[in-house]
Amino acid sequence: MSEAIEVTGYRNSSMPGVAWVKSPFSDLDHSKDCMLFADLGEGIVGVTDSKDPQAPVLRMTRSEITAMVAGAKAGAFDCFTGT
Predict the structure, then answer these.
(1) What is the reported pTM?
(2) Structural domains of the chain, count
(3) What is the rounded CA–CA span in Å between residue 74 and residue 52?
(4) What is the dihedral angle through the alpha carbons of 20, 23, 26, 29, rounded to the nearest 10 degrees?
(5) Which of 19-23, 28-32, 76-80 has the lowest mean pLDDT?
(6) Is residue 61 part of a domain?
(7) Fewer beta carbons below 10 Å: N end or C end of the chain?
(8) Could you tell me if residue 82 is inside a domain?
(9) Residue 12 contacts residue 55 (beta carbons within 8 Å)
């Protein structure tokens, strides 16, 4: 099992003090194809696009993230991967 990688050097303008992590399967350069995740507290997970430091931060519950991850593991979103 792989663990999330802490992203250094990225600051989202709407949440500059938040610590972000990304998938170990993303490009090493977080300016390319990375979705970033952050623990915003109280069961909320922030999600944003690494390519745009002014991108909005989506706020999702842990149960929403759990459902998305389960769907990805089951192949539900393979139609979006281009493979």
Answers:
(1) 0.85
(2) 1
(3) 29
(4) 30
(5) 28-32
(6) yes
(7) N
(8) no
(9) yes
